[in-house]
Amino acid sequence: MENHQKYMQMAIILAKKGRGLVNPNPLVGAVIVKDDLIIGRGYHQKYGELHAERNALASCTQSPEGATLYVNLEPCCHTGKTPPCTEAIIQSKIARVVVGAMDPNPRVGGKGIEILRKNGITVITDVLEEECRELNEVFFHYIQNGTPYVVMKYAMTLDGKIATYSGKSQWITGELARAQVHQLRNEYKGIMIGVNTVIKDDPLLTCRIEEGRNPSRIICDTHLRTPITAKIVESASEIPTYIGTCSRDEKKMDQFRKKGCRLLPVPQKNEHLNLNDLIHQLGQKKIDGILLEGGGTLNYSALKSGIVDKLQVYIAPKIFGGATAISPVEGQGIEDPSEAFHFKDRKIKILGDDICLEYYKR
Ligand code: AOF
Ligand code: ZN
Q: Which residues form the CMP/dCMP-type deaminase domain (predicted)?
């Protein structure tokens, strides 16, 4: 019995070690197996450094000649920041390569596998393909669109509130859900909020896990109303901070620049800034994924402009009530249920007493 799935699972686990460190490149892990014995393993550790395949080959405890290499992404065949992995695989006399998902990077896109086969290497594809695609959903989106993958994330009560009528929101979910959120802040390159949230909550949006890294903060601020004394602004010299704005008040913009903020001039669309334009600019700045953390006005604009790729909703077993207590998506809303924003491919995670629902754009 072959253990393709077992070894691919190991490659995925290895790949995950690169989370937060390799953006905008993919998470890749590789395992080299000979006579059902693991003789090498490696993963892509840092952006611009050696790919998983080369790290695995370098770690081999015996000759990889005749061995099988498991890798969650099709090996590359181009010279980028590093030479093609296909070359290293061929040279090492690996006999067989088992691939999880094909690489949609136009510089690879099936050519990696073709080269391996031309050199007499047996290639097996699509092993745990779905898991491998999910692992790199950010990369797959970014390499094909050039814009960040946007995840709208919020936590609410059973009656759909994100704060009480007095505006207080700490805490809705339990510890497990909150820990997962910090994990996401470590993984996603960007975190986006609207100016109202800055004014109301004055958040820092940092990642509070050991050895984690902070995401770049992005404030959507049509009229440049962010308080110059906001914590985000005060910490902008240490943590990359972007302010997307339609304001052209150079004097005011300079005050923010002096604090280390990066201002992105964005055209206006209706009463708000054009989110599609903003995410294109962020894509050019190598921001491959964004956690959208509200508030309600921005969430509605994001849904309306079609930039939301994934929804992540945490639900806590509590009820706040209150006709004026706010909900996750505000704005004008739709008039008729037939105009609803639709999602697909539901996933449910249990986090203690809370649940986490994930849906994808339809
Ligand atoms: C990675 N790590 O382990 C694998 C990658 O610019 P480069 O040379 O680092 O190449 C990046 C591309 O290489 C990337 O977009 C993907 O298509 C391919 N595979 N990349 O960063 C890896 N296997
Ligand atoms: Zn490579």
A: 2-123
**Prior bond to 83 cis, omega within 30?**
no
- Amino acid code (one letter) for 319: I
Mean pLDDT of 78-98: 95
pLDDT at 315: 98
Residue whose Cα lies nearest atom 4 of ligand 1: it is 51
Tell me: the pLDDT tens digits for 253-285? 999 999 999 999 999 988 899 999 999 999 999
Q: For the residues 17-37, what does the mean pLDDT come to?
A: 96
> What ipTM was predicted for this assembly?
0.94
Q: Tell me which residues have their CB closer than 6 angstroms to ligand 1.
A: 22, 25-26, 28, 44, 48, 51-52, 73, 76, 80-82, 85, 103, 105, 108, 143
Quote the longest CA-to-CA distance of the chain: 70
Stretch 61-68: mean pLDDT: 97
Q: How far apart are CA 130 and CA 58, in angstroms?
A: 28
Question: Would you name the residues annotated as active-site residues?
Answer: 53
Site of tokens 């745990």: 128
Nearest CA to ligand 1 atom 10: 80
Give yes or no for a contact between 43 and 55, defined as CB atoms under 8 angstroms apart.
yes
200 C-alpha vs ligand 2 centroid, how far in Å? 46
